[in-house]
Amino acid sequence: MSVARRAFIQMSVGATVGILFTPTVWTALDDVSIWTQNWPWIPSLKYGEVKGVPTVSKMCESGCAVKVRTVAGEAFGTEGNMDNPLSGGGICPLCANGVQVMNSPTRIKAPMLNGKEISWDDANKLVSEKLAAAGSKVAVISGDQTGTVNEVFSGLLASQGSDAFYSMPSDMQAADKAWTGLMGGSGQIGYDMENADVVLLAGADALESWGPTVANMKAFANNENGKFIFAGPMQTRTASVTSKWVPVPAEGMAAFTLGITYYVLQAGKSVPAADFDQFKAMVISGYTPAKVEAATGVKADAMAEIAKQLLAADNPVVVPGGSVAANGAAFALNLLLGGAMKVLPEFGKAVETAMTRSEMLKQDILKGVSADVLMVYEANPFYALPEQVKGAFTVAFDSVETETTAAADLVLPTPHAYERADDLATPYGVASATYSLGVPVSKPTLNVMNAADFVLGLADLGFENFDEVLEAKVTAVGADMDELAEGAAYVLEESADVSGVTLAASVLGKAAVPVKGTGAVALAPYTLLNVGTANQATTPNAPCTISNNQLIGDNMVVMMASATAKKLGVGVGSKVKLSGGNGDCEALVQVFEGVLPGVVAAPLGMGHTVGDEFSKGKGDNVYKILTVSSEAAAGASTWAGSTVNVAKI
Amino acid sequence: MQTKEFKIQWGMVIDIDKCTGCGACMVGCQVENNIAPMTKKDPYNYVQALTTDRDDAANKLKTLTWMNVYELTNGETFPNHETAYLPRPCMQCGNPACVPVCPVVATEKNEEGGIVSQIYPRCIGCRYCMAACPYHARYFNWFDPLWPEGMDKGLSPSTSVRPRGVVEKCSFCHSRYLDAKDKARQDGDDPMNLADGAYNTACADICPTKAITFGDLNNPEHKVHELAKSKNSYRLLEKLGLAPQVYYMSEREWVRELGDNNNADGGGHGAPSKSHG
Amino acid sequence: MGQKVMEERKASKRCGGVLPFIIGFLATCVLGWAVLPGLFYVEVEQPFKFSHTIHVEGQGMDCESCHFFRDDGSYAGFPTNEGCAECHAVDPEEAMEAIAEAGIDANDYDAIMKAEIGAIEDNLASESDENKQAEREYIVKYLIQGKEVPWLNYQYQPDNVYFSHKAHEGLDIAELAEMKKELSSVVDSAVFEGEAPEQNCNLCHLKDIDKNDTPPAFQQNILSGYSKMTMKMWKCERCHALKGQPNACYTCHK
Amino acid sequence: MDSKLFPEGTQRCSLGQFSIWMAFLFAVFAWGFYGAVLVLYNGIGTTGLDNYFGFGAWITFDLAVIALGAGAFFTGLLKYILKIKQLEKIINLTVIVGFCCYAGAMLVLVLDVGQPTRAWFGYWHPNVHSMLTEVIFCITCYLTVLIIEFVPLILEQKQLNKIPFIHALAHNMHVNMALFAGIGAFLSTFHQGSLGGMYGVLIGRPFAFREGFFIWPWTFFLFVLSAVGSGPVFTVLVATLMEKLTGKKLVDFKTKALMGKIAGSMLCVYLFFKILDTWAWANGYLPSVGLTFDDMFHGFIYGKWLMFSEIILCGVVPAIMLVTPSIRNRPGLLYTAAILDCIGVSLNRYIFTVQTIAFPVMPFDSWQLYYPNWVEYATSIMIIAFGFIVISLSYRYLPVFPLETKLNYQSGK
Questions:
Q1: Chain D contacts of B240, Cβ < 8 Å?
Q2: CATH superfamily, domain at D14-403
Q3: Which of A283, A427, B90, D120 could make a disulfide contact with A212, Cβ separation 3.0–4.6 Å?
Q4: How much is the pTM?
Q5: ipTM greater than 0.85, yes or no?
Q6: How far is the alpha carbon of B158 from chain C, nearest alpha carbon, in Å?
C-alpha cells in the first residue's frame, strides 16, 4: 500500500479529530436539532395585548353573555362574562366556539342572488320592488328570540300592512300562548331556580337545552340546598345531576302536572282566580291520580310524593317544557303553590310601529307559512320545517351557509355576532327582566351588512341605522349605555301584574288529555347544544365532544331501553329506519336504560345537507319525522306525542 | 425516579354531581390550547389526496381531547338506571407513570406546582408515555394540525402549535400560571403565593355549573384544599399509587365505586360502561 | 502474510508517522474556529431604518414611552402603529384619499413616495432627507396601510418559549458584574464595563441600542432560521442555575 | 455469467433465475416502501394505531425480530467466548440473520417514531431513567457491532479477497472477532432485557407491571431468557429454509441439533421463571390493585387462550421436545419444535405489547379492538423482503457456509 495513500488517511483522521476540537460540529448539531422543530406549514402565533371584550353571542337559542378574548386585536376565544347574570362565568359549548365560526370558510362572503354575487344597492332595489309588489303578502321568520332586530323587522311588516311575524317553534312561544293566550296574563314567565328550594322540571331540560341554559346551570350550581326533580320521557343530561328522574311521556306532561295539582288542591291551596272553582272541579273530577296513572303510566304515589315535597317547600317552582297545555297546567300549579315563578314585565319598544314580544309569538309557524316575500333572519326553517315554509321570493339573512340560504333566492350576509352591535333582552325563563348589549369586537372582513341596517334602508322607521335603534332601546329600557357596553346587564326586579289571570279551566281540561300518534313507539326528540339547535349546526371544535350515543361515524344513534329494543327485535348497533311525520330517518340503535320503555330517543340538530364538513352529512335530520298535531283545545300545534315506526334495515 | 415534593400543588376537584357533560370544557380547552378541528381532507398535502381520508372527530380513538368527558352508568336497567359524567383532564400525577419512561426528557414533573410538563419540540413521538398512562390522558398528533381556511388567524397565544408526530396532553393551561405570576409581580404580590382564582384553567373558567374547582391543594386559602379532603372526594385508580393531583367528588356511591378496581374484593369489574371519548 | 504487515508498519515509520495527522488536525482547527462559524449566518436588513437616537436624544423620549409593561404584567416590546401615530400624525383615511386622487395604486409604495403626497409630506417630522425618507417609508408602507411593522427581533424566540420580561425586570447589572466570569459564556462581558445603567436591557439586547442610529442587520442562522443573538436554552439554564432559579421545562416553555 | 463471484468451489443457479427471484423480492419490498412513504409523508394516522394503541403491530414485530435475532449474539458468545468449535459451521449465518433482524427493526422504528428526524435525541438528550433510552443505546451500538461482524464475511468474497489490503483487513478483523462477540453479547443481553423492562416498569398498566431486582423488573430477565431460548433455533429454521430453497445441504444436522439443544435448555430455564412470575403476578400483584386474573382477558381477541398457547403449547411443549435427544434428533420434530418455539416468543411479545395497553384500567373504560391496517403489514413485510434480499445475495456471493462444499460436492469421497 502506497505511502501517499497512508499519509492521506492519516491526514483525514487528523482533520476529523481536529474539527471535533472546534465548536463547529457541536453548534451545527444544536442548530439541526432546532431545525427539526421548524415546520414551515405549522402556523405561528400572534402576540400583543390580551383583552376580554364583553358582548353577546346569539348562537344558542337564548343567547350567551360572553367575553371575546383578543390578542393584538384579533379575536381567538370566548369565555363567560362574570358581570352578567346570564353567564356568571360560564358559557354553552356552541358559543364557546364562536370565534372559530366567525372565521369559518362557510361564512357567506357577499350578497348573492340565485348564486350570483350582487351589490348591496342592487339587493336593496330588488327587495324594495318585491315588497312594493307583494303589498301585505310579506312574512318574516326570525331565529332571534331576544333581539331588538325583531322590532325592526316587525316595523317593516307594519309598514307593509302585514302581521305575519313568525318565530321558530320554542318553549318561549308555548309558554306565551299558555300565559297570555289561555290564561289572559301579561308579561313573560320566569323561574327563580337559584332561590327555589324545590324545582320540578316538568319536561324542561333546563340544564342542557331548555331556556337560558347557562343561566339555569348557574342557578343550579349556586342553589346549594335546592332539590331538583326532572320529569320527562328520558334521562337527559339534566336528569344525570338532578336528585330524581320521574319518567313521564312527553304527551302526558300536562296530565301529570294536573295529577300533582290534584293533591295540591286537596291540600286546600287556592288562588283568587275567576275560574278557580271550575278549575278545581275539573282537576278533582278529570285528573284524579288513578286516571292520570291510567293515561300516562306514571304511578299515583310518585305524583303524591312530588306534591308532598312541593307543598312542604317554602319556595317551590314547576318549570314546564313541551306543549301549551303542559305550560298552562304548570302555571296554574305555580299560582296555587305561590312559589318561585315570576312574571316579568316587557321592556319598552324602540320602534313604535313594532309588535310586542308576545304579539310576535302569536303566529303558529307549524300551521305553515306562505308569502310573496318571505324574509328569514338567522333562522333555518328550510332545515327544521321544510314542509311548512313556502315563499315565492325568499330573502335569507344569515352569516353562514345553511339549508335556508341555499334555498333562498336572495342571500344577504349578516356580520357574525362578534362583528356587530346587537342586544339580548330577557331570554325566556330568567328570573328577572334582563337587558344586555353586544358591541362589535372584530371588524367584519367580508362584504356583510347588519340585517337591521338593510331593513332600515327599505322602510322609513325613523332610524338611520341599527345603532340608533339600539340607543332608543336602551333609553326605553332605562339602562345606561356605557355600563351596558362594559358588559354589565341591566336587571329590572319588578314583576308584572297578575290580577285577572284565569286558570284556563275550560281549555286545560280538554287540552291536557294525552294525544298520541299511531306509530309503534313514541319518539322523544332531544337537543344537546354541542350537537346543534334548529338554527345553529354543530361547530368546528364540537364534534369530538359528541358522544357515541348520538353519532357513530356518519350515522345518527337513537337510544332505547333494552325492553323496547327487545320488543322491536333490534339490538345495539342494528341499523334502523324510523318513519313518522312525512319522512324517515336512518339510525343505529344504542341501548340506554334511561329511556322510558316504548319510547325511542333521537337527537335533534343533525343531518344537515348544507354547511361545513363538521355538520354536513353527519347523522340524520329528526325534524323530518316529527308529527305536527294540533292541540285543538289550546288552539296551538305541537310536536309532543310524535310517534314513529321502526324497521330494521 | 425520585418523587419530588412541592410547596405548591396545583390541583382540581371535579364535582361529578354538578357535571352535565355539556362539553363546554372540551371546546374551551381546544380553543385555549390551539387544538385544530379534525378535518378529513388535507388540501395542502397531495400524497394525502392520493390515499384514504384523514380521520375526523367521528373516530373517538384519534381525537385530541386533553379534556375528555366520560359517561358513567350504574349498569342498572330501567327505571333504576343512573348516569353521570366524568371530565378527565391530565391527572398531573404525583408519581407519574409517563415521566420516567420518556427516553428524551420531553416530559418531567419538576416545576413548583407539580404540573407534568410536555415539551413538543423535544418529543420524538415514540408514544411510550401513552402506553404508560392508564388514564388515556396523553394524545398523539396522528396528522398535521389543519385549520380550515382562515380559521388559523384566530389562534390562542397561550400554547404553541404542535406539528404531527408528537405527543401532547393537558397542562392545566400552564401558561396561564406564568401569566398569573407576571400579574402578581406587576401588582407587587408574591408570585409564589397566588390568591385563589388568580390562576384558573380554561375548562374551570368556562364550566357553566362550576363543577370544576381549581387551585393549590397545599394552600388552606384555596377552596380545593378543603374540597379534596371532603368525605365524598376520591381519586381515580388510587391503588396503582400514581397519586393524581386531580380529585373527584360525588355523593353517589356507585360513582365513587367506579373510581378504582375493586374486583379482588369481589365487586365485579366496575359496571358495564361506555366510554364517551 | 503477517510479515507483509510488518513491512507496511516500517513503511509508515519511514514517511514520518504522525506529521500528516498533525497537519490535518491544525488545518481543521483553524477552519473550525475562524472560518466555518461565520458561514452559518446570512444578514437580513430591518424593514426600514429606525433611529433610536432621533427619538431618544432628538425628541427626548424615554424607553418606557414605547417599551413598557402592561397592567397584566406582560411586556409591550415593539410599539404598535397606534403608539407611533401619536406623533406621526398622518390620517390614514385622508392619506389614502389623497393617493387615490393622485391616481396611484395604494400598493405601489415607490410611486406614492415619489409623488410626495401633501397629506403625508406635511406631517413628516424629520429634518435630514435620509431620515425623511425612512419616515416616509414607514408611513407609506405601514401606518396608512394599517399594517404593523414586521420588525426582525434580534432576540427572537420561538412560540414554544414563554419569556417573562417582568420576571427579569429586577436583574441588576451591577450585581451580576460580580459573577461576570461565570456568565462570560452567556453575557458579553463588555456589558459589565463602566457605569451600569439603571435598566438591565443590555444583558440580552443590543448594547446601548438607545444610542443607535442605524439598526444593525439581523443575522439569521441558515439551519435554524433563528437570530444569531437568540439566546440558546443552555444559556438561559446557565444563568438560572447561577441565580438559583428553577430550570424545569415549564419555567420557560409553553 | 457472475460465476467468478461465487464462493470457492460452489455452484449457484443461473443469473437469470436469480434475477427473477430478486425481482420478486424487490416487488414485495416496493409495496412496503409505498406504505412507508405514506407514513412518513402523511403521518402515522395512516396506520391502524390510535390513542388506545400507541404501540401495535410495529412494536410487536420489532420485539419479535429482535428476540429471534438473538441467535447472533448468543451463538457468537458460545463460539468465541466459550469456544464451542462446532458452532463455527453456522456462526456466519447467525451474524447475517442477526444483522437483518436488527437493521429491519431500526427501519421499522424510523416509521414508528412520529419525528424520525429527532430520533437521535436519544443520544443528545438522554433520560437515564428510561428503559427505552437503554434500548436505543444498545440497539444502535449492537447494530454497529453486527456490521463489524458482517464486514469480514463480505471481505472474504472471492474477488475482493484477492486485494492484499482487504485480505489483511479481513484477517485482522477475524483475529479480533472474539472481542466484538463479547461486546455484542453484552449489549444484546442488555437491550433484550431492557425491552422487557420497558413493559415491566409500567406502573399504570397492571397487565405488564412487575416487581423486580434493583432497577430491573422481572420481565427484564424473562425477555433475555426467552430471546436466547428461541434465537438459535430461528437460525436453524433459516438455514433449513435456505436448504429447501437451494436444494443443497448447508449445515450438518449435528450442528442444528446442537443449536436445538442449546435453545431447548435455555427455554426450560425461561419457562420455569415465566410460570413462576405469571403465578406470582396473578395471585400477588393483581389482587393488591383490586384486580383478578380473569379481568385481564376479554372475549376471543383478548382471551386467555393467548397466554395458554404462549406458555404451554408454544413454550413447554417445544422445550420438552428440544431437550429430549430422541425427539430433537429427528429433523421433522426438531423443526416443529423450533417453529413452535419461535411462535411462542413472538406471541409473548405480542401479548406484552397489545394486551397490556388493551386492558382498560379505568373501570368505566372499555376494551377497544386494534386491527393493524395494510400499511403496518406492508412495511413489516418489506423488512422480511429486505432480509430475504440480504440473505440471498450473501448466500450467492459470500462464503457463508464453511461446510457447503464438503456436504454437497465431495459427498461420497
A1: 203-204, 206, 289, 361
A2: Formate dehydrogenase/DMSO reductase domain (1.20.1630.10)
A3: A427
A4: 0.93
A5: yes
A6: 7
